[in-house]
Amino acid sequence: MKPQQQIETGATLLNVENVSLRFGGVKAITDVSFDIRKGEVRAIIGPNGAGKTSMLNVINGFYHPQDGRITYRGATRSKMRPHVAASQGIARTFQNVALFKGMTTLDNIMVGRTLKMRKSFFWQLFRHGPAMAEEIEHRKFVEEIIDFLEIEHIRKVPVGKLPYGLQKRVELGRALAMEPELLLLDEPMAGMNLEEKEDMCRFILDTKEQYGTTIALIEHDMGVVMDLSDRVVVLEYGIKIADGTPDEVKANQKVIDAYLGVAH
Amino acid sequence: MADNTANLDTFPKWLRHNAAVRPDRPAMRHKDLGIWREWSWAEVNLTVRAYALGLTAHGLQRGDKIAIIGTNRPKLYWSIMAAQLLGAVPVPVYADSVADEMAYVLDHAEVRFACVQDQEQVDKILSVSDRLSRIEMVFYDEPRGLRDYDHSRLQAIDEVISQGHGILLADPGAVGRLDAAIEAGKGSDTSVMLYTSGTTGRSKGVMLSAGGCVNAARDTVAFDKLTENDSVIAYLPLAWVGDHYLNYAQALVAGFTINCPESPETAVNDRLEVGTTFAFAPPRVFESMLTSIMIRMEDAGWLKRKLFNYYIEVARKWGEKIHAGKKVPVLARLNYALGDILIYGPLKNVLGLSSVRVGYTAGEAIGPELFSFFRSIGLNLKQLYGQTEAFLYVTCQTDTEVRADCVGPATPNVEIRIAENGEVLYKSPGQFIGYFKEPEKTAETMTEDGFVRTGDAGFFEKDGQLRIIDRAKDVGKLRDGALFAPKYIENKLKFFPNIREVVAFGQDEDNVTCFINIDLVAVGNWAERNNIAYGSYQELAGNAQVYEIIAGHLAEVNRQLAEEPMMARAQVARFLILHKELDADDGELTRTQKVRRGFIADRYAPLVKALYDGSSLADISTEVTFEDGRKGVISARVKVMDAKIWPVVTGAAAA
After folding, report:
1. Pick from A143, A202, A206: which is nearest to B33 by CB?
2. Structural domains of chain A sorted by starting position, each given as residue range(s) with its CATH number in brackets
3. pLDDT digit string (tens) for B400-449?
4. Which of A148, A153, A209 sits opposite B147 (nearest CB)?
5. For residues B162 and A224, is the Cβ–Cβ distance under 8 A?
6. Most buried pick, A98, B141, B583, B652, via CB within 10 A?
7. Which residues, in sequence order, are CB contacts of B313 under 8 Å at separation 6+?
8. Order of strands across the sheet that contains B415-418
9. How many whole angstroms separate alpha carbon B478 and alpha carbon B570?
10. Are the beta carbons of A63 and A70 closer than 8 angstroms?
11. Helices B11-21 and B174-184 sit at what angle, rounded to 10 degrees?
């Protein structure tokens, strides 16, 4: 499904206003506001337990904040289910790879196309008639992603057998299959070696260029974050302590303290 | 048909010929987005002609050099064809070479244009563009990532081709100009320039003539009876003579199909899908095939395993004889036929070898057992010997006379002579014109009467097959003048799975001795099965039983050496098992895992001394570099052992 209205590059795609999230007495996020602009790479960083993943979960509707408003594509929403977020063009990958281990790379990425399939269950069940034509069309799209991510050689390999770095790539592929407008990446490079990280960086930048996807990512590798992102928001204990370009953030005393610790 | 092909002395003429004679036969296939796409000879011909017109519009002229950089893709092959059509000289460059090496080649070759695969190669060229003032345009196949680049000196190959199609439509004189360009090509023109891989010093540009290339390909196409029905998978580097010969040249002359894999990683699977009929692979590819089969058979069920082992034994005993047409008992023949249905056929199918009529291996020594295994299950695997300067073939084996330790008799129309120092010299139809811009090196390589020096030492066996023993400069002499070829001895020993690395000594000594590195996996496995406890490599290497095993291997190699009149004096007299594995981090191996003999001799001088002074124990302490870069010292007391020496076998007993 193509978005009804086009948002111009540089305009606000998603706006988070004064969002707070609590689990019982635990405050995961407190009064955080920031925006994501169309076409940028936006990084969310912070020490462990800062609420980064919770923030992503709030954005894609998995958690519902007690306070605050989220405006996506100009529409403010109160409660949204993840599948609604998905159908509106928000896709994500997970910190711990969440693929179907027994299925092949190809099938896993095809799953990403499910929301785009329009033909009735009946036709799909028999993989015939219009469903076949539709499947071919989707398969073509998936093959382009496979080509894009350079994973031709593992097309028919069950994902469970693949090394971690490749699984991450497949997961990115599945997210891309949804043709997302906003792509949320939760630690796309965790546990990768240098070469795999470099590959992943290239894929993220190419994704932005080729598909025009807006990307929000959580990442711990500061080198990667500073190289990739256009703007960075820094969280600590659920509170936003900085927001700005990589250079601004690097120079921010609060950020330095949060990462290096400070003598009291 | 023989009549009208006799005067085809350049590849563009062959392309035009193929498009006329077999327009609908597939010339090329490429797997893209998971689907095999196919181009017939007529389509390829038309595309190449349009491409050539597009290149002319960019100013490409006869004699210009044009670099081709990337993996095996139709558009890069077309680039070679289009360049040759116009009389320009394609210069394929290794796609994995780093920017600095690439800059050297591009600059040395004076290239004006480059046709490259993708962003990676474009980036490399751009990064050294300040050293490449001659490059005017770079054409690319894969647009991904290049959208925001400055396109003033960059263009997609597709655009060049469609530009050419436009010219074809608009300009009625274009067809005539193309044909005139093809006719203007002569057999004496430089057809292609291939840079040597440069393992020894800077790489040199080997200029090959069109007529020479065509004639060489003609000879081997006839020799192996290749026809338009054959097909190959192109996975070897474009810049390597093997690809340019076996795939490009032979395909044009025989009219067969080149299949381009989806990516280098998928080549194995893609080959399986295509079912190639002519195959080339270096020995390590066959080795990894065999290993993967053996590992999978270990996990197979009881019945399958028994059947497999039984029939592989049958094949080992009779297979080669049956395929060589020798006399074999009827029952054995029947049993082998049954084995073919049950085991060999399905096995070859799984490996994608079912349709292979001719398979070649070359490049390094192949283990006799590995070689026999594939031949015994009915794969027509042969060896060839060649080099870039010869446009590949110097020798190759016939379908029936095949042995693992030789590379065959001279290829048709090739003349071979052995120099006094043992160096192999040849004269061949495809023989190079010379090194580009390096006449003094060309002169060094040629003898006065026009033979080319290979740099390899070898000799002819009684059956007329050439045997390569070593690089000519590495072949030495013992004190009494007997031939000492260290690599030859080392390779023989390394065929034993228990032995990982060998360093042989003997230059100007009384006899040959060697250091052995055991293979930790193989020997460790053996130790496990025999309940021998060991804590480290060092401990296992010093084990008395391990010494016995290695002594057995040495006795076997010495027995083989004793049967070879030239080598019998070079039997290994004494050996020791090194207390540590040779490692590139310690400078003992090159990064390509070749032993650095001189360095090792210095470093382990006390051990070398012990090999020759008759002592049975030697102390050594060496500095080692750990994986994290720290250094430490390993000390050890190493045992030295005598090996069994065999009396020299004289006469024809060897045969």
Report:
1. A143
2. 9-89+180-264 (3.40.50.300), 98-178 (no CATH)
3. 888 888 999 999 999 999 988 889 999 999 999 999 999 999 999 999 99
4. A209
5. no
6. B141
7. none
8. B415-418, B423-427, B452-460, B466-471
9. 8
10. no
11. 120
Q: How many CA atoms lie within 13 A of B229 on its CB side?
A: 4
Cβ B263 vs Cβ A152: under 8 Å: yes
The count of other CB atoms within 10 Å of the CB of residue B480 is: 9
DSSP secondary-structure letter at A166? Answer: H
pLDDT tens figures, B313-326 = 999 999 988 888 88
Nearest to B570 by CA among B488, B512, B628: B512
- For B326-335, B408-417, B565-574, which range has the lowest pLDDT when averaged over its residues? B565-574
Q: Do B265 and A155 touch (CB under 8 A)?
A: no
Fold of B2-26+36-207: Rossmann fold (3.40.50)
Residue given tokens 């390589």 in the structure block = B445
Listed range (B36-40, B355-359, B643-647) with the worst mean pLDDT: B643-647
Q: Chain B within 8 Å of A155 (Cβ-Cβ)?
A: yes
Residues in chain B closer than 8 A to A207 (CB atoms): none
Backbone angles phi, psi at A20, to 5 degrees: -130, 140
Q: How confident is the model at residue B3 (pLDDT cuts 50, 70, 90)?
A: low
CB contact under 8 A, B32 and A147: yes
Amino acid at B202: R
Three-state secondary-structure class, residue A71: strand
Q: How many residues in total does chain A contain? A: 264
C-alpha to C-alpha distance for B560 and B562, rounded to whole angstroms: 5
The DSSP code for B638 is E
In chain B, where does the domain assigned CATH 3.30.300.30 lie?
475-654
Contact B232, B257 (CB under 8 A): yes
Residue of A160, A235, A169 whose CA lies nearest to A204: A169
- The answer to whether B632 faces chain A, any CB pair under 8 Å, is no
Interface contacts (A, B; CB < 8 Å): 32
> B148 in contact with A at a CB cutoff of 8 Å?
yes
For residue B250, what is the enclosing H or E element? Answer: helix B250-254
What tokens does A40 get? 């940028």
- Superfamily (CATH H level) for B394-470: Luciferase; Domain 3 (2.30.38.10)
The DSSP bridge partners found for residue B625 are B631
Contact B266 A152 (CB under 8 A): yes
Angle between helices B544-562 and B486-494 (to 10 degrees): 120
Cα B396 to the center of its chain, rounded Å: 14
Banded pLDDT at B153 (limits 50, 70, 90): very high
> Following DSSP, what letter does each residue of B103-124 receive, concatenated?
HHHHHHTTEEEEEESSHHHHHH
Report d(CA B481, CA B514) in Å as an integer: 19
Who among A139, A153, A202 is closest to B266 (CB)? A153
CA distances from B654 to A55, A146, A230, B559 (A): 79, 57, 75, 11
Cβ separation A150–B147 shorter than 8 A = no
Cα–Cα separations (whole angstroms), residue B587 to A245, B209, B536, B629: 46, 41, 22, 13
**Placement of tokens 């590495």 in the chain:** B474
For A:165-204, CB contacts with B below 8 A are: 202
CATH topology of domain B475-654: GMP Synthetase; Chain A, domain 3 (3.30.300)
A19 touches chain B (CB under 8 A): no
| A148–chain B Cβ distance below 8 A for any pair | yes
Q: Buried b / exposed e across B68-87, counting CB within 10 Å, b at 16+?
A: bbbbbbbbbbbbbbbbbbbb
Flag whether residue A137 sits within 8 Å of chain B, measured between CB atoms: no
